[in-house]
Write a structure and sequence with these properties.
182 residues, alpha+beta, two-stranded antiparallel sheet, binds zinc ion
Length: 182
């Protein structure tokens, strides 16, 4: 919201035209309704990567992924024609937080979630978003794991190690490299 200051400037002249008897300046703050500016991509990116979204809604992760793909020139709207299922599931490997069940099927997105691990108190919305970007990387982008990295030196989002400690800037960089490396 911007305020515009209108300065009203009154000069009250005296009775005689030659003499200024008094000058009165009146400043009036007039609030003006201005349409809020649309946030920039970078501002929205900061919002999302700071975890400021409804992390309990699985489809928020999908929407952010699709939005970010578009920012990097990738139109994945064809996926909207197919079923997109993100749901709590039980996997035989109890250590898996999430998994792309239909990674070989381009006509269905199906992500299973171990809700106990996914919503563990030590995991922030940002760390959840990181996991979901990884899973969409499998399911939508058909990417395999980049297993040459070790868990102590993760340099690719498709590394299978989870990253609860992922920072905003590092996350942004990994996403940029993910999309630009396709
Ligand atoms: Zn994976």
């Amino acid at each position: 919201m911007k305020n515009f200051t209108y300065t009203l400037f009154f000069i009250i002249l005296g009775c005689t035209p030659e003499t200024i008897l008094e000058e009165v300046y009146v400043y009036v703050e007039v609030p003006v309704e201005v349409e809020p500016e649309e946030p920039t991509v970078e501002e929205l990116r900061d919002t999302y990567y700071n975890g400021e979204f409804n992390g309990a809604d699985y489809y928020e992760y999908f929407k952010i992924f699709m939005w970010e793909a578009k920012n990097y020139g990738l139109d994945l709207d064809y996926t909207l024609e197919y079923p997109i299922i993100i749901e709590p599931r039980t996997h035989q490997n109890p250590n898996w937080v999430a998994w792309a069940k239909e990674r070989d099927n381009d006509k269905k997105i199906h992500i299973g979630i171990n809700t106990e691990l996914f919503f563990s108190v030590s995991r922030s919305n940002r760390a959840r978003l990181y996991i979901m970007f990884h899973e969409f990387g499998h399911d939508i982008l058909n990417l395999p794991h980049f297993s040459t990295n070790s868990c102590s030196n993760i340099t690719h989002l498709m590394n299978p190690c989870g990253r609860n400690d992922i920072g905003v800037d590092e996350f942004k960089q990994l996403v940029k490299e993910l999309f630009e490396g396709l």
